[in-house]
Structure formats: C-alpha cells, structure tokens
Model the fold of this input.
Amino acid sequence: MRPVRILPGLHWVGVLDTQLRVFDVIMQAQHGTTYNSYVVRGRDKVALIDASKGKFAETFLATLRPAADPAEIDYLVCNHLEPDHSGALADVLTVAPQAQVVVSKPGKALVQAILNRDVTPRIVAEGDRIDLGGKTLRFISAPFLHWPDTMFTYLEEDQILFSGDFLGAHYCDPRLYNDLVENYDEAFRYYFQVIMRPFKEYVRQALVKLNSLPIRMVCPVHGPILRSEIGGYIERYRAWSAEPPKRGKKRLLIFYASSYGNTERMAHAIARGIQDAGAEGPVYDLTQVNVREMLDEIEVADGLVVGSCTINGDALEHAWSLLSAMTTIKVKEKLGASFGSFGWSGEGPIMIAERMKGLRFRVPEEPLRVQIVPSAADLNTCAEYGKRLVAAL
Amino acid sequence: MMQPHECTMCEYTYDPAKGDPGRSIPPGTPFDSLPDNWTCPKCGAGKNMFVET
Done:
C-alpha cells in the first residue's frame, strides 16, 4: 500500500495483513490485521514510530520509502517491542543506520534481545520530549499494556496519541479510519479481552493519564485509526477495566470433569463443606460450561477448586483448558486446590495442583484424591477439605 | 553483598534487608543467594533481568 497522509507531516506507513486468521498462535483474527507504523516529519527531524513484523520487512520498507527516505530518519520510536512491531527493526536499521532507537527503560533489554547486537538506544521516561522542529513528541509511561516496555508517544502540536496496542484491534481495512470502516466493535472488544484484560490495573492507570490529554486522534499499531467518537472507545476501556465490585461472601468456584460421577460427587461434597464454613461454592461441570464466558466470574472469585479424574496418567483436557484460560486474568493470590477420583494411579489432581502453583495460585492444601467410588467417610473428608479451604482464605 | 537489585522490566526492587516474604525468602538474603528459579514478585522476570542499583 502507499503511505496515507493523515495530517501535514504525519503519514501512516503500515502493512495490511489480510490473510492472517490466527494471531500469536493463540488469538483469532478473522478480519486479518494491520501493523501500523507512522512517520512524523518536523522541520528538522524525522521520526518513525514503531516498525512492522519481520516477514513483512520488504513490504514495509516499500511503503515507507515514498513517505521518508530511510536515510533521513533520525529517530525510530518503539512504543512496544513485541516482534509484530519490532521484527522488521533490523531491516530498517540496515537502511537507516543513523536512526536512533528510542525506547522506555525496560525496552532496552528487549531491543538488545531482538537485534542480538549491542545497541545504544535512547531511553525516555514520562514527560521526556523530542523536538522534531514544530512537531514535538512527548513520551507517556504506560507499562504493561501489555508488555513491560510499553509506552505512548504523544504528538503535542497535533494532539495525536500513538498508543501502541492500547485501543487497537485485529481488523484489516485499507480505509484505515474508524469512521470509514465497517463496524468493528466485536474485534475491538475481543482484542481488549485477550490482550489488555490481564492488565486491568495498568489500563486504569493509563486512562487516568489520558483524562487530562486533549486527543484529536488515536493511532494504534493494529486496526483502525480513531478520529471520531474517541471518547466512546475510551469509555469502553474504562468499563471493561473497572475493578469488579467485591462480594459480601467469600467465594470458591468448583470445576470438575468426571467420567463416572465419582469426581462429581466429591465436588458436591466439597461444596457442602465450603457452604458450611459460610462461603459460597458453586459447582460447574467442565463439560457443560464455556470457560471463556466465565472469566468475569472467575476473576471476582477468591479461588478455584479444580477436580479431574485421572485417565492414563493425566488429568482430563477440560481441566487443562480451564487453566490455560487463566492467562487472560489475574490469578496471583487466588486460592487454588485440586481433587479427583482415580482408578489406580491418580496423577491428575497432583498435576493440576502443580500447574496452579506455576500460575501463581496460592495452593495451601495437598490435592484430595479418592480411589474410584468415594465412601461416606471419603465424602466427609471432602466436606472437611472444603472447610479448610475456606479457613485458608 | 547486601546491594538492592532492580528488575529491568518492571522496576521492582529486591531489597536483601527485606527478603521476599511472599516466597519465604527471609530478610538478610543477598540477591546472589536467591534460588536460580526465583522470579520477580511483580512481573515474573527471571533473576538475570535484575541489575544492581
């Protein structure tokens, strides 16, 4: 694509990835995506803001050249060093060896790990400015949106926010602007849920900073540029990142996957114990629920109790799916526990407990295991287990 | 070697005088004596991402 002139002295020079359907191995991208990059030209200096994915380096440079000869780029600002924006960095620096890489403090180690050579980037912090001559870039610290290095760059004179992944979406449309493309609300929401959701507290911190910032346009690195109803997009981020209201009662969610109903019986007995101890312990059959739709519920709970029987030395994949969904929410400090009925070996609950520790759950109790059919005494043990979990909250 | 170390990723500072009570690392533990698999309590970065301050 040709560069797109956004304003005098500001060009979009991105790449359209129309074919992409799965991003980062884990994320759907049914509308493809864009890797947006921007050239800001002042009277004296030229800055390139973010680069592109490595496999598109040539396409990217071809789009860049009509907007700026690489040899005249003075600054290469990296708001975010994930390889979809930094993969082409080495190629850019080959044709623009004079360009100074500009990163946040945490970005320094990352840029070295990407280029695998000694680079001396310019490190910028909150409020630092680079004057391009009538175009001033101001840097806004915005860590963990969604990597440690992330920051925003604000073009003061034109009130443009280069926001990195923040307020972006995997959505590919050459019309580029939010008021010209079709409705992409769902892609915008999904992007938040997968990328920003684990960092809600950082989203809230960033939104506070944006409160006092006049913004004419938001230029993210993926998806449409926002130039109308910007407040509406920010409002959605505000709602999605809000701290969930605290419940009156403590709450432990019990999930189980059961072949013959034995692990299921254990689940209900544990739930009785939890309730007897004055907490809530709703029980969910993992074969019947959509975990992805329960993330809000999981997020506000005080802990998870996960049960699985053991088949051929492993827990059931339902339990693994549940735990792999935890990457998009904050689990640190939540209580974790595991249980299950087994035939002869019973590794399942042990592996679940280990996985929970790896995810930084607090796992105060050993896994609770029963061989095949839980007896009345076993069910009492389950109830006691539930009570102890509540006591450990 | 009671020098504090800072995480280059999130700027958390490990202070040997305080240790890392959340991970049962007692006060007085020098950074170099932390287990190799110790990670930043704030962001999870490995020991090698820390620098002396």
Q: What stands out?
A: Strands of chain B lie at 5-7, 13-14, 50-52. The longest strand of chain B covers residues 5-7. Chain B has a mean pLDDT of 91. Chain B is about 0% helix and 15% strand.
